[in-house]
Amino acid sequence: MYNKLKKYNQLKYSSLLNIIFKNQVLRIKGPLGVNYVRIPSPIKIIIDPLEKKLLIGLRTNVFLKKKLPFIRSTSAIISTSCRTAVLGDLLFIGLEGLGLKFVSKSLFSFPFFSLSISLGLSEPLLYFLHKLRARFFIKAPRQLFLYSTDYSFIQNNSRSILNLRVPDKYKQKGFFITRFI
Questions:
Q1: Which stretch of DSSP H or E encloses residue 16?
Q2: 142 closest CA partner among 106, 97, 108, 110
Q3: In sequence order, what DSSP letters do the residues of 119-167 get, joined into one string?
Q4: How far apart are CA 159 and CA 167, in angstroms?
Q5: Which pTM was predicted?
Q6: How many other β-carbons are positioned within 10 Å of the β-carbon of residue 143?
Q7: What is the pLDDT of residues 7-29, one digit of tens each?
């Protein structure tokens, strides 16, 4: 039925992944960890473990044209979660400007690391990152690398760090981000 109507997206996934769909939650287990994706109720997912395929479609045929972007966005979220469970995500944050630098990192209390950032203020700021969900490395005083298997977690934390000091548009000083895989 799905092949004739073209109301689905088809995703192929790696043989390193173990995917289970239960109670509208997709559990994606890979070599680097486990990601959970909550699936909205109008979306139907069929898993073919032999061919390593996911079929993502609608439960009903009502308002198909309005729901197609909904299917595409859900499949994009699932494919990103599959990729990060196998490869992880690496994000680079750089600093430009006088007095801006990443000072040090230390273990604050068990699940948290603290990152000390000098932003030209009188005291360095402390930023806390969850140890079990992400790792960060200071390569140079002005370069920080964030690594995680959860793409949304790493994006949210990088934006929080960026909001500590808003970049200056005219002088081109402040934070800049480059995303690596």
A1: none
A2: 97
A3: ESSSS-EEEEEETTTEEEEEEETTEEEEEES-HHHHHHHHHHHHTTSPP
A4: 12
A5: 0.67
A6: 14
A7: 678 888 888 999 999 999 999 99
